[in-house]
Amino acid sequence: MSTPASVLNAAGITLRMPRDEARAEELGQDQEWCELLHADGTVERLRFHDYDRIFDVPGLYEKLFYDELECNSPTVVRELLSSQLSAAGASASDLRILDLGAGNGMVAEELKRMGADDIVGLDILEEAKEAAARDRPDVYGAYHVCDLTDPAEHVDDALTAFAPTGLTTVAALGFGDIPPRAFANAFGYLSSDAWVAMTIKDDFLTDEDPSGFSRLIRRMNDEGTLELAIDHRYQHRLAVSGEPLFYHAYVARKRDEIASEWVEELETAVA
Q: How far, in Å, CA of 30 to CA of 24, rounded?
């Protein structure tokens, strides 16, 4: 049975990718796992959505998702947003960007490459903030740890004062990490005509989507709340089995607010 492994860091931790096991088990994306082989001989199994532990191990997030599974979503989003800004005669350096589901700052690093330099990160995990400070200490002007379904008062005040003119959320929607209410609250901080750049998995854009995002985005489009500039389907990364995973990347403009009853109706429907 093939179990590719590679040394991860100076601590002697080895990452093992169970590709054959994954094919046999036909894992869903939120069930995928890998193993860490430690120098003392112990083996630690991690689900890919165990982000708190993944962020704790320096270099693991990049090695797992970018080196082994060839994720390119941050680059795709940066390129699409940059092209739309250019077409509109806008400059990335003028944006104030809220990076929702910020993780360890890989998206913000791409935004910096694009020319943005006023970026605030937000994630629900303290481990994500610590990883960003460790791995990319210069990409965020501020970083908040908060459950945005019910933001703490100091975070609410800070984001209101920041008044972002751009929102990015990459590979974070649809698995329960950022529920529709959290996205709607983030959207509410945006100033009028703000730019929105986000990605979401194919599966979460169908009528069978259990998360509610497809219905929310469809309604935002139908009601003119969100004006879509581009919808780009692309390969987000490989599954652990080696099969491609496809996402949609959107770049859009905020034209109105999300009505509170839309989110309430969604939450009732998916409960």
A: 16
Residue 103 gets the label, from left (phi > 0), alpha (psi -120 to 50) or beta, of left
| DSSP 8-state code for residue 170 | -
Boundaries of every domain in the chain: 5-68, 73-270
Residues 239, 247 contacting (CB under 8 angstroms): no
Instruction: Give the residue among 187, 195, 193, 198 at the shortest CA–CA distance from 255.
Output: 193
* φ, ψ for residue 167, nearest 5 deg: -130, 130
For 137, phi then psi, to 5°, come to -70, -10
Polymer length in residues for the chain: 271
Q: Which residue has the tokens 């970026």?
A: 119
Phi, psi of 196 (to 5 degrees): -130, 125
19-28, 59-68, 103-112 — most confident range? 103-112
Tell me the one-letter amino acid at 37: L
Instruction: Write phi, then psi, for 39 (nearest 5 degrees).
Output: -60, -25
24 pLDDT above the threshold of 50: no
Annotation: CATH topology of 73-270: Rossmann fold (3.40.50)
Quote the tokens at residue 164. Answer: 């972002």
